[in-house]
Design goal:
With 862 residues, this protein is mainly α. It has a 5-stranded parallel sheet, with helices on both faces. A two-stranded antiparallel ribbon has the order 6-7. Strand 6 (311-315) and strand 7 form a beta hairpin. The radius of gyration is 37 Å and the shape is elongated.
């Protein structure tokens, strides 16, 4: 399923119960309730017989379906746990199992696991039913893991049952099942052997030569603990006598004592084999031969198995083994007595062997234990940037990563995807003193921007694509860097270069198919196109994003971001009903971790209120927006606040002064963007510096015309109309030409919001233009202007037509031309056009046919 991951399939196989196992009638009677209970917990100390009890019950009920996972500390990780669980139940998932695997394989974000679980639960609804047994569940402590497993238990169909074998109470909330009678518990007291069961266990199962009285005394000494009885029997096998004592010792003491006695009873060669191989999670003859540099390790394995040396066969066909957990722990304790250099060397050899056999995970673990982080990194790279590889990458000390820019960036990306911003900041701080300042360094530092840090003292210099290509980086890292660079370039109004970076990222992504990178690439692309005023292309990008979200449901937590962005497009088109629907969907999906996404949502809602002429509502949203202190930390943020504060009529004096100071005296750190310049022109005009305002505006218009940045161009043209019209100094011809240019750049993409925000001056200019130059417009341009003019009356739905307008509408309904209408009503053609424009605006229509139909609906026409 995952590149670079070797599944230990034997962990998914239930061990066979011992021959001649004790059939524990009372417990078997309790277990008959398992098919009727949602959750069964079997809790007892190590070696208390939990596993044997369940496996023997499974053997006696072949008609029931069981799935098995033998858990250990390596599975105490969200991704590892669910990886094994998917493998355990894949036979129950029907034809969609491959889809679920591919979804899981692309998950780098912990909080997105819920979406996979929803799909998994839905798929299990059609399953025949089974009981999932999780052995050694006490090793599971990760909060995210436990939370998701609670979710899974709660919503799984009733045909799926859970049995947890654990040494301590599971760290789960199971109260719901207890209250509803869907919970079964077998505790430590239940598991203790009775005297007769202990005798049967020692005599029949273990073959120990003990009488009933001795068995009873041993049972008292071990307090009914099956593991202790087994160790006693092994001691008898090797010492021909049982160490009976009236003193009851702790289980741990007994394990150490008896294990020492056992270990001393084997040959030096066997002892050496046991201790040296104890560090292996699993082994076979080939692995042991390589580790010990010898041949015929199988004979030693067989000899030790015959002596009941706690060697567990986990795959008889393949000859794969492991040590019993308790005995393995003891052997590793003995191994820990070696000198540090020898231990490192031995773990290093084990790592190299596991790497050779293709088990990269085990290899990395041993390299970590040896402290060989450079060797571990080479193995991690082979994992091809999978989630598992990134999980191990996060465990590597930073000093080993700084020489690999590729891995630093991936490490940073991993923590960012998991919203671990504090770790990201720590990485950036630690790395800052170790790397040279160049294009890579600038991009790396700029990631602070995405973590809601200000841009103070950050160089907004992305470097060139040639510099990025020269970096010795993987395609994955390059794609991420290109995305970051596009954001940097966007902040510098270098839209063409930014789009080039996005296209490079998309081309790279097509080589390795990472839906997360494609999602962010399309999102950045849509934002750049929006700034350019290419709203139609934006809509097509959002259609692609929608398909991506639909095909990869684990991206669902990011859907709010797409909804907010798409709503912004509809706002610019003044399709406010559609925007409102999208905002409502986004509100329900906003993740609390993404403060920048929340800011974007609030910002757009504030603009929405202004477009709806709701200034009090806009003021409320503005208040929420200004609570984000980051917006005051750098002048690049200030213009976004001031623009809408001026439109709402509530400007913060300190913010205004700070922005003016930066525009006029403090531009050493970065160049003002077009948005900043546009706001500055408004400020100049408001304080009476009309000539300077127009001069600045002309420079701005020259640049945005050259680079065809349509949205800014339209805003700048309409602002110039407002400035020229304010004191009547603008000639009618110039105003008409400006209106014509604005319409030219607006109509194809339906860019309407700047007209509404600029206000009544623009409305009057459009009316004059339609009266004087309507004939110069294309049909679609005319339709666009009529739509824009209709927007001013939408806040007055009950505004009625004047008597003269009614007369014009009635004559218009007969099909006469403007000239014929003028002749019949004895008015000029220009006056007819003015009346028609007002009729369209009041009736919220954009052409003659719509006006006549609306007039009939309202009873204005016979």
């Amino acid at each position: 399923m995952k590149d670079g991951v070797k599944l230990i399939t034997t962990k998914l196989k239930a061990p066979a119960p011992r021959k001649n196992y004790v059939r524990r009638e009372a417990l078997f009677d309790k277990l008959e309730l398992v098919p009727e209970r949602k959750v069964t917990v079997v809790q007892g100390a190590a070696g208390s017989g939990k596993t044997t009890l369940i496996t023997s019950y499974m053997k006696e009920h072949p008609e029931l379906t069981f799935r098995w996972i033998a858990l250990d500390a390596d599975n105490n990780d969200l991704f590892s746990f669910w990886f094994y669980l998917l493998e355990a139940i894949k036979a129950d998932l029907g034809g969609h199992v491959d889809d679920l695997y591919s979804i899981f394989d692309a998950l780098p974000q912990k909080h997105e696991m819920d979406n996979l679980l929803i799909l998994l639960v839905n798929q299990l609804a059609a399953a025949e039913g089974f009981t999932l047994v999780l052995d050694d569940f006490h090793t599971m402590e990760d909060p995210d893991l436990l939370r998701t497993f609670e979710f899974f238990i709660k919503y799984c169909p009733e045909s799926v049952r859970f049995v947890l074998l654990t040494r301590e109470a599971p760290k789960l909330y199971l109260g719901e099942w207890m209250v509803s009678g869907q919970y079964l518990e077998i505790g430590e007291q239940d598991l203790k052997f009775s005297a007769s069961e202990a005798a049967q266990f020692l005599q029949d199962t273990l073959g120990a030569q003990v009488d009933e009285e001795t068995a009873s005394r041993l049972n008292e000494l071990t307090e009914g603990w099956a593991g202790g009885l087994q160790l006693m029997a092994l001691a008898q096998t090797h010492q021909k006598a049982l160490p009976l004592s009236e003193t009851k010792g702790l289980n741990k003491y007994m394990i150490n004592y008896l294990s020492n006695e056992i270990l001393s009873s084997v040959s030096p060669e066997e002892k050496q084999f046991l201790i040296r191989t104890s560090i292996l999670n699993y082994f076979n003859e080939s692995i042991c031969n390589r580790l010990l540099n010898k041949e015929a390790s199988q004979s030693l394995i067989n000899s030790l198995s015959d002596k009941n040396m706690f060697i567990v066969t986990i795959d008889e066909d393949e000859g794969v083994y492991r040590y019993h957990h308790l005995f393995g722990e003891f052997l590793r304790w003995k191994f820990s007595e070696w000198d540090d250099e020898s231990k490192r060397e031995w773990h290093g050899q084990a790592a190299a062997i596991y790497e050779q056999v293709g088990d990269l995970e085990e290899s990395v673990k041993h390299y970590f234990q040896a402290g060989f982080y450079r060797e571990a990194l080479l193995v991690i790279v082979k994992m091809r940037h999978t989630v598992t590889g990134w999980t191990y990458l996060r465990q590597v000390p930073l000093e080993y990563l700084v020489d690999s820019r590729d891995l630093v960036f991936q490490r940073l990306f991993y923590h960012f995807c998991n919203l671990e911003f504090e770790v990201c900041r720590q990485i950036l701080d630690d790395v800052s003193a170790r790397v040279e300042e160049d294009a890579f360094w600038n991009i790396l530092q700029f990631t602070r921007f995405f973590m809601d840090e200000g841009l103070h003292d950050l160089e907004i210099d992305p470097g060139t694509t040639d510099e990025i290509e020269r970096m010795d980086l993987s395609d994955v890292t390059k794609a991420i860097i290109y995305l970051t660079s596009s954001m940097l370039l966007g902040l510098r109004d270098q839209y063409a270069e930014a789009l080039e970076c996005i296209n490079k990222a998309i081309r790279l992504e097509s080589r390795f198919h990472n839906p997360y990178i494609r999602y962010f690439a399309l999102t950045c692309q849509s934002q750049l196109l929006e700034s350019l005023g290419e709203l139609n292309q934006c809509q097509r990008v959002y259609e692609s994003l929608s398909r991506l979200l639909e095909n990869h449901r684990y991206l669902a937590p990011l859907s709010a971001n797409s909804l907010i962005g798409e709503a912004g497009i509809y706002m610019k088109m003044m399709r406010l009903d559609k925007a409102e629907q999208l905002f409502e969907q986004a509100r329900l999906k906003l993740p609390t971790e993404y403060l920048s996404m929340e800011r974007g949502y609030i910002h757009n809602r504030m603009e929405m209120c202004l477009l709806q002429k709701d200034k009090p509502g806009a003021a409320q949203w503005m208040k929420r927006l200004t609570s984000f202190q980051i917006l005051y930390q750098h002048p690049l943020y200030h213009s976004a606040l001031l623009k809408y504060q001026m439109l709402a009529g509530e400007v913060e004096p300190d913010l205004l002064r700070s922005f003016i100071e930066w525009m006029e005296h403090g531009q050493d750190t970065c160049t003002p963007r077009y948005d900043d310049q546009l706001v500055y022109v408004r400020i100049l005009f408001r304080r009476g510096d009309k000539e300077q305002a127009l001069a600045c505006l002309e420079d701005l218009l020259k640049n945005v015309r050259k680079h065809k940045i349509k949205f800014i161009l339209i805003e700048a043209i309409l602002l110039k109309v407002a400035i020229l019209d304010a004191d009547g100094t603008g000639s009618e011809r110039e105003l008409l030409n400006l209106a014509r240019e604005a319409i030219h750049y607006s109509f194809a993409n339906g860019i309407a919001s700047p007209y509404v925000l600029e206000g009544d001056t623009v409305r009057k200019a459009l009316i004059v233009f339609m009266r004087e130059r309507e004939k110069d417009l294309l049909p679609k341009e005319k339709q666009f202007v009529h739509f824009v003019l209709s927007l001013w009356s939408q806040d007055k739905p009950e505004e009625s037509l004047s008597e003269r307008e009614l007369e014009v509408l009635r004559v218009l309904s007969t099909g006469l031309s403007n000239k014929e209408i003028g002749e019949r009503l004895c008015i000029s053609v220009a006056t007819v056009k003015t009346h028609i424009i007002k009729i369209y605006a009041k009736l919220h229509v954009s052409n003659r046919m719509e006006a006549v139909e609306k007039g009939r609906q309202l009873g204005l026409l016979q």
